[in-house]
User: Fold this.
Amino acid sequence: MKFRETTSQQGAELELAPMIDVVFLLLIFFIVTWQFARFERDMDISVPAAEEAEDTDRQAGEIIVNVKEDGTIVLNGRDVSEAELLAKLQAISEAYPDQAVILRGSSDANFQAIINVLDQIKKAGIWNVAFATTKPQS
Assistant:
């Protein structure tokens, strides 16, 4: 019986092309995911603290309206006026009657500016409104 010699076998070579493909696909996935997550959080806004604040799972398609300290309204990463906000929210409300809107008002913003935005949301016919808060620092 003839056995193969173990020293005559070639070692397996590492294939780099499939590994590079996988690395590039992962890189693209994380860049695209980061790009979408960036619009959700506006770092210029520090929302008020509340004892009963909860970390909830985000729903797909939520509309986030930010009210900055100077009263600027930001919708999906773009500054808008109250009239533009109303027009966009009315279009969304007609297409999706139960659309959720998250209102993120800066804790240093003028209260009247936040109420004006809330009024525009109500005029658009959107009833599902939530206010964003954070847990207080311990």
Remarks:
- DSSP finds three helices and five strands in the chain.
- The domain at 45-131 is CATH 3.30.420.270 (Nucleotidyltransferase; domain 5).
- Helices lie at 16-40, 82-95, 111-123.
- The two ends are 77 Å apart (CA to CA).
